[in-house]
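PT: before anyone asks, these are the final sequences, not the draft ones from last week. 583 residues across everything. Please model them as a single complex and drop the result in this thread when it's through.
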Amino acid sequence: MKIRFWGVRGSFAMSGREFLRYGGNTTSVELVTDAGKRLLIDLGTGATELAKELMTGEFCKGQGALPILLSHTHLDHIQGLPFFSPFFIKGNQIRILGAAPLSGISLEATLQNQLSPHYSPLNGLENLAAGVKIETIIPGTTVTLPGFEVLTGAVPHGSMWTTAYRITADGKTVTFLSDVEYPAIDEPIPAALVLAHEADLLIHDAMYADDDYERSKGWGHSPARAGVVVAERAGAKKLALFHHNPDATDDMIDAVVERTAARSAVPVIAAAEGNYLDI
Amino acid sequence: MQITFWGVRGSYPVPGAATVRYGGQTSCVETSTASGDTLIVDAGTGMRALGNKLFREAPAPEHYHVLLSHVHWDHIQGLPFFSPAYIPGTKISVYALLTAADELHQVIGGITRHEFFPMPLEAVPAQFEFHQVEPGVELDIGGFHVTPIALNHPFGSVGYRIDGDGSSWAYVSDTAPFTEVLHKQHFLSGPEPLSADDRVALAAMRDALVRRLAGVDTAVYDTHFLPDEYARFPHYGHSTPDQAIEICLEAGVRRLVLYHHAPTHSDEQMDRIAAEYLARGAIHNIEVLTSFEGMTLEVGPEAT
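LR: through. Structure below.
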């Protein structure tokens, strides 16, 4: 299995020289199996960059298939949807899977609202030429996708829940745990440990440098240290800090990685836009 | 009067090495008079950096006025990230073209609904106030005299002529030209045949725009597309620099500023566009500049 980070930034897309090495696009992560099956997590602005690449191949001919897992529907995780060009070619088979954002509000209604005529000239999901199949996940269940087995789980994110994913393919496991804040940093909830159990790569929310966390408590995001606790307890083999703060420049992220790695028994990297990485 | 560009991109923000010089953030322009009155035009992602600057300069409650051309995502997405909104006592007046200010409240509130954003509008410390604008109905805001102008964009959009300090500039974004497509309140999968009424409506909209732009010093204009791109997507609601030059020449505008750049246009491509249209404008005696993030322009005296 290979992974490519197309967007690693949290909350807000950042352009400019200070954000070139890690990248300024919001959340979007692609996984590809050895046999070439593909899976996308989240539709932040990073997805628009992946879209350009997809449109050089079968998606341009309307012969592409792609399942997309959504962690949740905060804007930085879906803002690339109206500009994800494979939607505009008839024949592409695109599925969006995710949990209902809140009780009483369906995933489909939420995405429809994003494309309402006020906000988007697309004026509704029905105008995407490719169509889109929206499938509601019940967190805690397992989803089988072509080439991938996915265990899902709900984790707390401020006033809502996000869905975390444990994705297995080719005998390797990647755990995606972003937009999460545990009741206490040193006490990750059991679901997090189950999802990250002996994962080859744990991708974890690291919105705040440890020193900045105290004044940012309650917004639903983790300090870098929280991912280390999960990785160590769950026996993960590698930790990728993710969902970087929009104000964190490349140099600041370097410093966070250095400080975090010094206090971690598990190897630590910061997720960065760029090339495919082998798991 | 001064204009500062905080976001010059259309559609969606584009980070990365290819947009470092012109900038990747979406529509947001700040204008101020010599006496310090300020207006914000559009609330795209550029508004975050503007908010941070305003907060640094004066971390105290102020009254901000935000004119919206329309409420597509790329023109409102910065609002929840405008840091002065989180200072108690701040007041934010939003002006837009909608059937009622109440509807505007719902729409702006809608982007901070629980499923989209962690803090709903009602919980934000700033006090929001919503005003409906109508094309041709002029209004005074501080030292500015503002004239809304109807534009041709899906579900409607307005431009603004802004007079202040004895000079004037206009914000003309987002708009298609007034030829092949008349944008209405429904989805277009391609250009639709124009009826006789449609042609009359387009001509009237064009005439009103030219009339309102008459004698304006500077026009900031939606020039999202190059001509070959426009030819493929005439129903997307955006113009080319050539179409903007045509309108500005007819209205006698002194200076045209290209704006709302396509997200796919790299810095190198923007350099070529800037050079080409500067030269083309010179032939017709109109100054054509290309906006970039951080650019500040002085708006000169009324052109004669």
